[in-house]
C-alpha cells in the first residue's frame, strides 16, 4: 500500500513538470528576460523550502559536516538552475510534449550509465540483456525488471529453448529461471528431456 502511495506521488510530481514549464514561460514574458524569470523561480523555491524548514523545525546542519561534502555534491544547484533556464527557453519553442519527452530520453540514458557504472552515490547495477531463443521464437529484453535488470515473462509452445543472459561489461550476477508446464503431455516431454530449457550465462 505504501509503495502504491509513493508511485501516485511520483506520478503527480511528473505531471507537475509541464505545468512548471508553462508557468516559467509565462513569468518570463513579464520579466523581459529568461534569466530574471529563472532567478524569480529559484528564489520562490528557496523561500518555500525555508518556510517548510521553519515549520518542521529542522535543525541547522553543522558547518564541519557541510564543509566535508565533496565539491561535486554542490553541483545540484547549478543543474537545477540550468534545468529551470532551459525550460524557460526551450519549452515555449518546442512545446510541452516534445520538450519533456526529449528530456525523459536524456534522463533515462544518463540513468542507465550512472546505474551501470555506479557513478556518484549510486550502487552499481550492470545493464543486463536477456534473450530467449527456440524454434520460431526469439525474445529479448534489457531493462524490463528492477532497475537495469532484464525480465521476460512469456507463454511458449512446447519445444527446446535457450536462455542467454549477458551484461555490457561481462559482469557476474544471479540468474533466475522459472518454468511452469501446463498439460500432462508437455509435462512428460519436459521430464523426459532435461534439456528442454537450457540456461547459459556469459
Describe what this molecule looks like in 3D.
- It is a single chain.
- With 202 residues, this protein is α+β, with helices and mostly antiparallel strands.
- It has two domains: 116 residues, no CATH class; 74 residues, no CATH class.
- It is 53% helix and 12% strand.
- It contains six helices and four strands.
- Strands 2-1-3-4 form a four-stranded mixed β-sheet, with no helix packed on it.
- Strand 3, helix 6 and strand 4 form a beta-alpha-beta unit.
- Helix 2 packs across helix 4 and helix 4 runs antiparallel to helix 5.
- The longest helix has 30 residues.
- The protein starts with a helix and ends with a strand.
- The C terminus is likely disordered.
The beta-strand count equals 4
Mean pLDDT, to the nearest integer, reads 75
Order of strands across the widest beta sheet?
2-1-3-4
Report how far the terminal alpha carbons are from each other: 38 Å
Poorly predicted tracts of residues: 194-202
Structural class: alpha+beta
Q: What's the helix count? A: 6
Number of domains: 2
Order of helices and strands: HHHHHEEEHE
Radius of gyration: 25 Å
Helix content: 40-55%
The 3D shape can be described as elongated
- β-strand percent reads 5-15%
Give a quick account of the main beta sheet: strands, pairing sense, barrel closure. 4 strands, mixed
Task: Kindly list the characteristics that best describe this protein.
alpha+beta; single chain; 202 residues; 2 domains; four-stranded mixed sheet; elongated; disordered C terminus
